[in-house]
Design goal:
The complex is a heterotrimer. Chain A is mainly alpha-helical. Chain A is built from 13 helices and no strands. In chain B, strands 1, 8, 9, 10, 11, 12, 13, 14, 15, 16 and 17 form an 11-stranded mixed sheet that branches. Chain B has a 4-stranded antiparallel sheet with strand order 4-5-7-6, with helices on one face. In chain B, helix 10 packs antiparallel against helix 12 and helix 16 (468-479) packs antiparallel against helix 17 (483-501). Classes of the chains: A mainly alpha, B alpha+beta, C mainly alpha.
């Protein structure tokens, strides 16, 4: 997914280098306790941003509910569990929200509330793992390219250009279906079809993450390029530190802020992309649900004659609020680490 | 200030850009076409308009308007009546048909249509190089199959010839009761040799496309529209009811409904274009017409895959399906559930009863087969294809219901496997599945179009099932000229299929649904083939 | 110089992309000719495959494809066998470009002022409200926005047609639906840019001259702030083109977005590779144009 070009961050790089240099000087004078580390300063700034903090709390709350719900179902047992089992069909098709079914039911009489929560597991997992995959690949790729420089840098960045120019939808379809076929042949899957579904879901995560790392790589490379020639790195080198040590002890911690911000901002993009794939029928497979599949089902109910509004309002509302929270959180993190205009 | 000075160019640039956009807009709408008399939504874009290679029903509806055959179907009951041929003689043994062409036939570009064109068209459909997927419709001709499979290469040996300019002689392998219906089938339509030889595969895009049917192809823009214009040189042009017909390729039921509600289209005809969730409301409306249809929804077993090689297992699964629930909760169009494959209403045929709904017997059979209470029954997958972007989710919804039913009644676990449509066809034909959702729509109004599929080795069998007795019965029925004896033979065959062996489990008979306002649109009659010739339809212009 | 090198480099780049796309699509399971009605004999299947050279080894097929490509022939669609890929592109590309262009206009026409005003009124309620809507726009999937717009404006209010593409009235709802996501993105980038620009030396100097705040921001900070928006235009136009599938599908617009996705699903090899190449060319050209515009606008930026 294309995003702000690297060059637009050049403006921020100027500011960042001043900060990096300042923090470098601080690392050198480790004994001074008078100034807090950049991490602590960022944390303080973050706490002042009320919206970001609110978003963080909302996400924590959502996570708690998502994790607690299956446990609740398990321990309550009996009718309650049966009623709210997300795969349990019933005769009450398309029932509007009632005391029994808080978010109503769908075409098979399944509890939409429960399906939304179980779907949240998948969607958030997709977002986290996808963003994580793109983080790891992007950071490594960009850091190595930026730090080593020269021909390796050129080569790695050309590869990024090539991949940027491929329409990602093809990539994703082929990745998911081809790897899916290959997995099917493997022994693991032959033994257990449950493993097959799980593996297919994982494939989806990896696939989505694999197409999102490109921008990350570019940004990281830009940051590393500028950091590389900063005073504290020079200092380290004169002291005799090797490449790996410099990479891991000095460069990577300093791009941590950018990285973590980017993860928080990539997650919504990945979750949205998964919902597009579900709309096309390529996302998670039934009977598993993700927010994407639930919303796609809900959207197919929008017509001028009769709308089962709960099928789209509830899953859609939860999706939108979560994405909003992630975005605000990401913005807050970026403001906290970057010190832009006050 | 040099820096912000340069950047100031952004304002005039932006203004210019907006102006250019406005111009582009105006240019984009410069295509001025007269409005059509009739606008129809036909389901998705046809793969092709070449009668020899199309397979989808939607494609055939358009092609029938462009190219005609020796016979054509009349609009009321879809019976075969004279088309390009004005009469015919059938030999007493039922194997030789002599067609007499009309003498005044012309292509839309003016050349005469003669019997040589008919022979050319049929041979072309059988030519292995054309790679027609429906060539099988012509296999009833002598030597046709051998020619199509490459066993013989001399086209002159195939049982169709042109003794003179206006006579076509067809020699069949054995008497075929539905041969005249077949002659109306698009694969046997008459195509213009002059254009094909000149343009090759691109012949349909020729500026002046010669057509033999009621309409000419005025425009064909992919995913946009197909525009048909009345062919004045058609032999029956005086009875063609509309001048210009637009055919729109729309795949999403909601979009189709919206377009119809807003009056942007006049007719929507394809059962897949009705949102099933709204079925109960829509069927109450006067402009929604439902009718029985020659199509069956069923699922297949891969009988080469354990445990589905055991007929008791297959029967058990069949008996445990509550088909009423599926029809009431999921499809909702008032479909008739069925235990037999061939729909009731097929000409000259009353299908035998199949199996009913009996979970107790099902459990007993399953226990007999070695899986009491479902214990030890291996997990298996139900394969179906995804509906991309906006399409109906029938297959998935039926699958979910089946999963639940078998879990509750038999204690067995089924997984759902959804794949893309292209992958689905491939997997089904390679027998790379355990259960797969299926359907079949009759090509012509006869039991053979359904039962002929499950003969050993037929390309459309796709279950791995083979029963020599069944094969014998079907072949014998096709050789039989006496209609009553024929019916009996088919009934015996079908009993083996849906009562004894069950490589497939029929669920319900399709209900066709068209929607249009009968006060405005005339010329459509409901028939089992859902065939409505374009030439017969017209719209009454609103009185202003 | 730099740009000449990039243009030259585009050629091997496109070559690599064509190979990648070709190989990837052939790797995917399923083929273009698998269908519901099986041909009466395997002979026929073999014949179809032979006709389109699908039975040859993949490198040979690619060589053949490349040969045709150099003559400007993208091949014949395997699914719509009477149409060539060139036909498909000629029909669909202008439509998609128009749709994308209109969505772009909408996104910038709404996003830029929104970004400007939220920055100008920073910390006060217009900022909170505007920023909220900007973020909201980025969080709602377009396949939710589109049916909602259709329901309200086309079905209930009857102001616009429901679908299809022929008059300017048909173009309004799809452009809005497609552009809504980017309104949010543009607004946020614009706001960022404004806040940064407001710190710059030029603006501080101008402020010292005593100009009114909004006029000041408009005259001096605004042009600077537009630079990141300009540089985002490249990826945005690219996303508009590639992401138009959903909108084209819902509104039945005959653009190439639908073709791209459907051809992947149909395993229509020639169309997939052809359109991939087309998109790649467009993306490269777009990126190049934007980078060029950027250097021209901001002389501080140099490319090595």
């Amino acid at each position: 997914m294309n995003d702000e070009k690297v060059d637009s961050s050049k403006l921020s790089v100027e500011r960042k280098t001043t900060e990096a240099a300042a923090s470098g000087a601080q690392l050198a004078t480790r004994n001074s306790q008078l100034h807090a580390s950049p991490g602590q300063r960022a944390w303080r700034r973050f706490k002042k941003n009320r919206v970001a903090v609110l978003s963080a709390w909302y996400l924590v709350f959502l996570l708690a509910v998502i994790l607690a719900w299956p446990i609740l179902l398990k321990i309550s047992g009996g009718d309650f569990a049966k009623l709210h089992n997300p795969d349990q069909l019933s005769d009450g098709q398309f029932a509007p929200p009632t005391a029994q079914y808080w978010f109503g039911t769908d075409v098979h009489g399944r509890d939409v509330f429960s399906r939304t929560l179980f779907g949240a597991q998948i969607s958030l997992l997709v977002g986290v793992v996808g963003a994580g995959v793109s983080l790891v690949i992007g950071v490594l790729w960009g850091a190595i390219a930026g730090y080593v420089g020269g021909r390796l840098d050129s080569f790695l960045m050309r590869l990024v250009d090539i991949l940027y120019s491929l329409p990602s939808i093809i990539f994703v379809i082929v990745l998911i279906t081809t790897l899916g076929e290959m997995l099917k042949q493997s022994h693991l899957v032959q033994q257990s079809p449950a493993m097959a579904s799980a593996l297919r879901v994982v494939l989806l995560f990896v696939g989505l993450g694999a197409i999102s790392w490109l921008t990350m790589a570019r940004i990281i490379r830009g940051q590393v390029l500028s950091l590389r020639s900063r005073a504290f790195v020079e200092a380290s080198r004169t002291l005799g530190a090797g490449t790996t040590r410099i990479l891991f002890r000095h460069i990577i911690p300093n791009i941590f802020g950018v990285a973590i911000t980017y993860v928080a901002l990539t997650m919504p993009a990945i979750i949205l992309y998964e919902s597009f794939l579900s709309y096309l029928g390529l996302g998670v497979q039934p009977p598993m649900a993700s927010w994407g599949t639930l919303i796609a089902e809900g959207v197919s109910q929008i017509n001028p004659i009769r709308i089962y509004w709960w099928l789209i309002v509830f899953p859609g509302g939860v999706l939108v609020t979560t994405l909003l929270a992630l975005n605000f959180l990401g913005d807050g993190l970026r403001d906290a680490w970057d010190v832009k205009g006050k | 200030m040099r820096f912000s000075g340069r950047a100031r160019w952004i304002f005039p640039l932006a203004r210019f850009f907006f102006f250019a956009a406005a111009l582009a807009l105006a240019a984009g709408c410069s295509r001025h076409e007269p409005p059509a008399d009739l606008t129809i939504i036909n389901n998705v874009e046809p793969e092709s308009l070449d009668p020899a290679i199309i397979v989808a029903q939607a494609d055939m509806r358009v092609v029938s308007g462009l190219f005609e055959g020796l016979t054509r179907l009349e609009p009321v009951a879809a019976r075969a009546v004279p088309g390009l041929a004005e009469s015919w003689d059938i030999s007493p043994d039922g194997k030789i048909y002599t067609f007499h062409l009309r003498t005044n036939l012309l292509w839309s570009t003016g050349e005469p249509i003669t019997s040589a064109d008919v022979v050319y068209s049929w041979i072309r459909a059988l030519d292995p190089k054309t790679a027609s997927r429906y060539a099988g419709q012509l296999y009833y001709l002598k030597n046709a199959e051998e020619f199509n499979t490459g066993k013989i290469t001399n086209a002159a040996l195939v049982g169709v010839s042109a003794p003179d300019k206006f006579t076509v002689r067809a020699e069949l392998k054995s008497p075929t009761a539905f041969f005249l219906d077949l002659c109306a089938f698009p694969t046997l339509a008459v195509v213009p040799r002059q254009a094909i030889e000149k343009y090759g595969d691109h012949w349909l895009m020729a500026k002046q496309l010669p057509v033999s049917g009621a309409f000419q192809l005025a425009a064909w823009r992919l995913n946009d529209k197909i525009r048909l214009k009345k062919n004045l040189r058609y032999w029956d042009a005086t009875n063609t009811q509309s001048e210009i017909i637009d055919i729109l390729p729309v795949g999403s039921p909601n979009t189709a409904l919206n377009l119809y509600e807003r009056g942007q289209v006049d007719i929507v005809w394809d059962k897949e274009l009705i949102p099933s969730e709204l079925m109960d409301v829509l069927l109450q409306r006067a402009d929604f017409h439902s009718f029985t249809y020659l199509g069956t929804y069923f699922f297949r077993f891969n009988v080469t895959h354990k445990p589905f090689d055991d007929p008791r297992v297959r029967k058990a699964l069949a008996l445990a399906v509550d088909k009423e629930r599926i029809v009431e909760k999921i499809t909702k169009a008032g479909e008739v559930i069925t235990g037999h494959l061939v729909p009731a209403g097929t000409r000259n045929y009353t299908p035998p009863a199949g199996l009913g709904y009996d979970p107790v017997l099902a459990r007993k059979l399953l226990a007999e087969a070695g899986y009491p209470g479902g214990k030890g029954f291996p997990r298996f997958e139900y394969l179906f294809n995804a509906a991309a972007g906006g399409g109906g989710k029938i297959h998935e919804n039926v699958a979910i219901e089946l999963q639940q039913m078998w879990r509750d009644e038999l204690g067995i676990s089924m997984e759902l496997r959804q794949v893309e449509t292209q992958v689905f066809w491939g997997m089904q034909s390679r027998l790379d599945y355990q259960l797969s959702r299926s359907s079949w729509i009759g090509d012509y109004n006869d039991a053979n179009t359904f039962l002929g599929m499950f003969v050993t080795g037929d390309g459309n069998n796709e279950t791995g099932w083979s029963n020599p007795h069944y094969d014998e019965l079907v072949h014998a029925a096709n050789e039989e000229t006496d209609l009553t004896r024929r019916e009996k033979l088919f009934q015996q065959a079908e009993t083996i299929l849906v009562h004894d062996e069950l490589p497939i489990v029929p669920l319900y008979i399709y209900v066709g649904i068209n929607y249009f306002d009968t006060n405005k649109v005339l010329g459509i009659w409901e028939n089992v083939l859902d065939d409505h010739p374009l030439r017969s339809i017209r719209k009454i212009k609103a009185k202003l | 110089m730099y740009f000449l090198r990039r243009i030259l480099f585009a050629i091997p780049l496109l070559l690599v992309i064509s190979v990648l796309a070709f190989v990837l699509v052939h790797l995917a399971p399923g083929g273009p000719f698998d269908s519901e009605r099986k041909p009466a004999s395997p002979e026929i299947e073999r014949n179809i495959k032979a006709k389109y050279h699908l039975d040859e080894p993949i490198w040979k097929q690619y060589g053949r494809y490349l040969g045709d490509l150099l003559h400007g022939d993208f091949g014949v669609s395997l699914k719509y066998r009477n149409h060539s890929v060139n036909d498909i592109i000629a029909q669909g590309l202008p439509v998609s470009m128009l749709l994308g262009g209109l969505a772009f206009c909408f996104a910038t026409a709404v996003g830029v002022p929104l970004g400007f005003f939220t920055a100008a009124r920073r910390g006060r309620w217009p900022d909170y409200l505007g920023s909220f809507f900007a973020v909201l726009a980025v969080c709602i999937p377009s396949f939710v926005v589109a049916p909602a717009l259709i329901l309200i404006f086309a079905m209930k209010l009857k102001w616009f047609p429901v679908a299809l593409w022929s008059t300017p009235w048909h173009m309004v709802l799809p452009s809005i639906a497609l552009g809504s996501y980017f309104v949010g993105k543009v607004a946020r980038i614009m706001r960022e840019g404004m806040l940064t620009a407001a710190q710059s030396e030029f603006v501080t100097a101008a402020r010292a001259k005593g100009l009114g705040e909004t006029a000041l921001l408009l005259k001096h900070a605004f042009p600077i702030a537009l630079l990141p928006v300009v540089s985002y235009s490249g990826p945005m136009l690219a996303d508009l083109l590639t992401g138009s599938f959903i909108i084209e599908n819902i509104f039945q617009i005959p653009g190439i977005g639908v073709f791209l996705v459907n051809s992947s699903l149909n395993r229509d090899y020639t169309v997939v590779v052809g359109l991939s190449l087309l998109y790649a060319m467009l993306l490269i050209a777009l990126n190049l144009a934007v980078d060029f515009a950027y250097t021209w606008l901001d002389p501080r930026v140099k490319y090595e």
